[in-house]
Specification:
By secondary structure, the protein is of the alpha+beta class. It is 44% helix and 21% strand. A 4-stranded mixed beta sheet has the order 1-2-3-4, with helices on both faces.
Amino acid sequence: MKLSSTAFAKGLRRNQTDAEAKLWSRLRNRQLANRKFRRQFPIGGYIADFVCIEAKLVVELDGGQHTDAAAYDSRRTTEFEACGFFVMRFWNDDVLEDTESVLATIHSVLAPDEYAT
């Protein structure tokens, strides 16, 4: 029996990585630029790690396994972009070791006027 993308996404939410949990704790409840994020959200034929629908932004986290999955990740990015989303990718280590820089980078896309000089 094949799981629906929604059921599969629910399973991913229950089994998130440490990096996903850390970033989600800072994105949820409109904590970043007062924007609503969803996690493990189906878009096209794939499930995005994090998405802000109103900003048409997808945030993907890549672990060590993604070094060997570059072609798959490229197809995912192409699909998300075809659906009108801008895609940002971060390494899990960056989220775990330098969360504030990752958040600042995401924030600069969500609220670019705050970074204008």
